[in-house]
Each structure stands twice: as C-alpha cells, then as structure tokens.
Amino acid sequence: MWLRIKRILSNKTVMLRLAFTLFILLVIRIGSHITVPLFDTAAITAFMASSGSFVAILNNFSGQALERFSILALGISPYITASIAIQLLQMVVPSFKELSEQGESGKAKLNQITRYLAIGLAFIQGFALIIGISTNGSVLVPSLEASAVENYRYFFYVYMALVMTGGTALAIWLADLITKKGVGNGTSMLIVAGIVTSLPTMWTTLWTKYITNGGGGWDIVFFMLIIALYFGILLGVVYMQIAVRKIPVQYANRQGKSDSNIPMKINSAGVIPVIFAQTILSIPLTVVGFSGNSTTGVSGWLNSIFNYQQPIGFILYVLLIIVFSFFYSFLTINPEKIAENLSKSNAYVPGIRPGQDTKDFVAKLLFKITVIGTVYLVVLAVLPVLTAIVFGFTGTEAQAITLGGTSLLIIVGVAIETTQQVETDASQAEYSGIFK
After folding, report:
1. Structure pTM?
2. What is the CATH number of the domain that holds 103?
C-alpha cells in the first residue's frame, strides 16, 4: 500500500492532474456560495422546510448550493437526467441507436445532443423551481417587492432561471475539464464533492443530538452504535463494489491452463437503478412540493403513493429499483455479444459449447449475480428510511443523517474508480520512463 502511495506521490504528471482537479473543485465550492441575483434566500429556506425528501436529495447532490439558491443550485443534475434520457432513447429511437454504433464520431454527436438537452432541462427546472417557491409568496428581494417592478416579476423569474441555466452550463464545462485534464470522471467528481460537503453536517447533527443535548448513558451508547453501524455499512459497500464473479476462458490455440477470465461485477448496474427510481418518484413529488400542501386532496394522494417514506411509496420504490436493476444489468452486459466475441477470438468457457450454449450460460449467470446485486441495492437504498425509524430521526435530522443510501454508494464507487485510474496513470508513466 505504501509503495503504491509513494509511486503516485513521486509522479509529477499525476500530481499535477490531482492539483488541477482540486482547483476545479475549489472553483465549484466558491461558485456554490454566489447567490442568484435579486432572489430572497428566505423563500428557499421556507420552501425546503415544507417540502419532501426529493429536495433534500437535490440539495445534497449540489453541496448545499440549493439551500443558498446559488448560481450552481441545480449543479450537474440536469446533465445526469439528460444522459439517462438519451441512453433510454437509444433503445427506442433508430437514429440514436445508429449514432451509438458509429464509434467516436457518433458518441460525440450524442454527447452534443445530451448537452443541449441538459441546458433545456436546466432552464425548465430552474423556472419551475422558482415558480414553485413563489406559490407561498414572492421570491424577489424585499426592496424589489416594494417597488413598481413587482408588476414585471415574471421577467425577473426568467432572468433568474437563465442565471441558473448558465450555472449548470458552467458546471458541465468544469466537469469536462476534470475528465480531460484531471483525474476521474468530471461529472462523478462534482457529485461526490457535493455529497462529501454534507458529511460534516451529519456528524455535527449526531453530536448535537446525542452528546450536546443528550442525557449521557444510553445517548452515548447510541452515538457509538451509529458510528460503528456507519463504518460497518461503508466496509460492506466497498466489498460489494469490488466483488466480481470471474468466468474462466480457454483459448483453443493455447496449450495448458489459461488464467484468462471475464470479470462480471456483482453490482453491475451500479447506482443507476436507485437514481432512476428516485428520478421517477421525484416528478410527482415535485408537483406536491409546488402545491404547498401535501396532506389533503390530490397532493396528499400523490404524496402517499410516491413518497418512499410512506408505506405504498416505499413498496413502489423497492419495485422500481428491482426492475431497473435487471434492466440496466442486461443493457450493459449483453450475453449474446460476449458469446459472439468469444467465438471470434477462438475462445470458449470450459465445459460449455460455443454459441447458443455460451450465451445461455452467461445469461443465467448474469441473472443470478443480478439477484444478489439487486438485494444489495434494495437493502442499501432503504437503510436510511429504516434507520430513521429505528433511531427516531425526524425532520431536518432525517435529512442530515443518512446511514447507507445512494450517497454512500456514489462516494465509494467513484473513489474506487478514481483510485484505479490514478494508479494506472502512475504505472503507465513509470513503464514509459524505462524506454526513454
């Protein structure tokens, strides 16, 4: 381990890329404190206090930029939504499918379409958010409220939405800079940076609840128990993220035992199923949040069905994770392509005939692995809800204290991928130096 760290620290190229990434993240943190002009931040505070958990999720992903209503309040989330939409459209729109099969040029066109869609979604989300907040009163600063320009408030709303759209465009550009000149995937790094900034709030809330305001004795025991549970879940997530099932492969033109294999991750779908489920549930909950009343009428009905902290919403949330987990696993790993590639390489799985038998074997194995991965995702996704009930977290406590959940999965997944990339870059630079 220390040799690996020494190799990374001694590599100037890798260290420069790390420094560049940290600089971009610093720019993002500074931007998250720049408030949208003309907006009264007291309005967003009141809105978040009365809204559901979907707003808290957006706030965590943006690094608390939403609660400050900064120019980066939407963060990179519109780009993620657009990316998911384009991936799904590739399955139903022939032109998109053709672009995905045209190599780098096709990917570049799809990426451009994704960016345009993300900018459009950013404006729609920003404007809808401002309108929703204004249902309980105006969102303009008091000095404007008292003047004649109140008659043109919707013009200012459009202006604010354009500023937030510009913030999203800036976030997408900075994410691309990290991908090209820094370490890791830029989009993932921005999300993780936003999530990590919420961790001090979690520990501060726990300390205040059990130590500062606690009565000693059992409160200290609960505090230590929660810490142990958190790190236990963290270790479990790390183990499941790196766990793979290797399919042995033998080449017909090679004699003796072969060490070749096809690694299949236990959680091949990653965090995508949970994000899909939360995105679908957040759409009707957004309408509920904008109505200002989530207990009566149609809003109360929607809240009881789509809020995963309610019994029906909880069941729907779990079902969506299961469906999307199987859907995305078989989308990313195609048993037919694996069997075809093995045949072209004159390779086979020992004991399995090439062709259809290999395809069926891979499909059955992928199904079994996906069952394990889906159970893992469901348990991890519902842990924050269950622990909130067990330990009695309510209101802002439940939003701040999350044991497990999507956030931890994203942090661990991105950390593992980034570490592997940094080690690979350091090793490549070391090997290339031998021939210089």
Report:
1. 0.79
2. 1.10.3370.10
